[in-house]
Design a protein that fits this description.
The protein is an alpha+beta fold. About 30% of the residues lie in helices and about 25% in strands.
């Protein structure tokens, strides 16, 4: 029997989504649980899995279409099954069928008319690029493989969008190709960094004198969908949730020593970060304080049975929260691998619905940017969020003597409608029991 696939609801506040790409084409087989399409929400590009097995008999919407939640997008049937009846049903006709097959990804990018900039909703691929840079998915992948900085490539597509032929032309220039090939990949250290660090510094060149005519013009940059969604949710959180904040400084000498010892026994892709210790510690502490592992819903507080820790991940054009589910039941090693995998998918724009939905408490860690401490805005409808600064060596007093110790500050933001200062302070003390005696996280 033919089955109608609908636009899934991938978030409690999602009203519509943009079908970015069909992964399975008409006439191709699809397995239950395999990726059927890529859909862009306000948060990210999500890989949507098929709930049915069979053949994709018909696409009911074209790539690039904005589709309301629960509207039909495709028909999956058995091989050779007649889907005329299913396609003519009122349910399938809720979306007008496309008259022609969509053009290929690259051809569509090069031939589509340029929309008005103010009304244009950026694609998720463009939203992850530097400001002012737009590129097709194929061009973006080619640039990543060849280590090309897209801001140095001139685009010939609509509105200056970079397409496949622009990357090919860039790489064919000998000097540029050599520079692109020798550039370090994202995340790799710059070559000979240590050697350059010890060389004498050279004097700075004189600053050029700029005339008024050479002053850069003002630039108007439309906000991408992710940034608009973040702004809308954060305004809602600040206006509706009365925040209060409590900061605690943790002695992480033992944690840093245990981490170093544990990582000496692990493979590179399994190494445990300081944040992984925090995720585990927070999850266990929340078991003692279920009122903080909660959501506000009208005049009710929902205390969640599962402890699902949301971890904020910086992506191009905004911020995503990936979810480590049942973190209180998982060993540190599993948390480390899972969070690393989730964060990698988020940065690549390939998250799945379950990757970003269902968190009950969030952590935002800026320690890698040498931030001492900060306060975060609660991620609605959650009741609290923990903002974590960097672990740093500072002068401390131990046993009436001045010495060097590892210290780390964290600030919890709490919805005052759900909890009070005393409860939040006790939670921060409970967290100290785990972070300052980290062997408890392994038992």
């Amino acid at each position: 029997m033919a089955e109608i696939v609908k636009m899934p609801k991938l978030g409690f506040d999602m009203a519509e989504g943009t079908l970015i790409k069909w992964v399975v084409q008409e006439g191709e087989k699809v397995e239950k649980g395999s990726v059927l399409a890529e859909i862009e929400t306000d948060k990210a590009t999500v890989e949507v899995e098929s709930n049915y097995e069979g053949v994709v008999a018909r696409h009911l919407v074209e790539a690039g279409a904005i589709v309301p939640v629960n509207s039909p997008i495709a028909i999956i049937a058995a091989p050779g099954e007649d889907v005329k009846k299913a396609s003519e049903s009122p349910e399938a006709q809720a979306i007008t069928l496309p008259e022609t097959e969509p053009a290929s990804e690259e051809k569509a990018a090069e031939t589509a008319p340029a929309p008005a900039p103010a009304a244009e909703a950026e694609t998720s691929e463009d939203a992850r690029l530097p400001e002012g840079v737009r590129a097709s998915p194929i061009a973006r992948r080619m640039a990543s493989d060849a280590r090309v900085n897209l801001s140095q490539v001139a685009g010939s597509g609509p509105s200056g969008r970079i397409v496949k032929k622009d990357i090919m032309a860039y790489l064919q220039a000998p000097a540029l190709a050599k520079a692109a090939a020798s550039a370090p990949a994202r995340g790799e250290p710059a070559p000979q960094l240590a050697e350059k660090a010890v060389k004498p510094l050279t004097p700075l060149a004189p600053l050029p004198t700029l005339s008024g005519a050479e002053t850069p013009a003002d630039e108007i940059v439309p906000l991408n969908r992710l940034r608009l969604a973040i702004g809308r949710r954060m305004v809602e959180a600040k206006q509706q949730a009365p925040h209060f904040y409590i900061t605690h400084e943790y002695d992480v000498d033992a944690l840093m020593a245990l981490r170093q010892q544990a990582n000496s026994m692990l493979q590179e892709d399994e190494k445990i970060s300081v944040n992984d210790f925090i995720v585990k510690g927070v999850a266990l502490a929340l078991r003692q304080f279920p009122n903080l592992n909660a959501s506000k819903n009208d005049d009710q507080v929902i205390r969640h049975g599962a402890v699902n820790i949301g971890v904020a991940v910086a992506v191009e054009g905004g911020l995503l929260t990936v979810v480590c589910r049942d973190a209180d039941h998982k060993p540190l090693r599993q948390i480390a691998v899972e969070v690393r995998t989730l964060a990698s998918r988020a940065r690549e724009g390939k998250v799945r619905p379950e990757d970003i939905e269902g968190s009950t408490f969030s952590i935002s860690n800026l320690g890698m940017f040498d931030v001492e401490n900060f306060s975060a805005i609660i991620n609605p409808p959650e009741a609290a969020i923990l903002a974590v600064g960097s672990a740093r060596q500072v002068p401390v007093v131990k046993h009436e003597s001045l010495t060097i110790g590892w210290r780390m500050k964290a600030t919890i933001s709490v919805d005052h409608r759900v909890s009070d200062g005393a409860e939040a302070a006790r939670f921060m003390q409970a967290l100290a029991d785990y972070l300052e005696e980290p062997l408890k996280l392994l038992l």
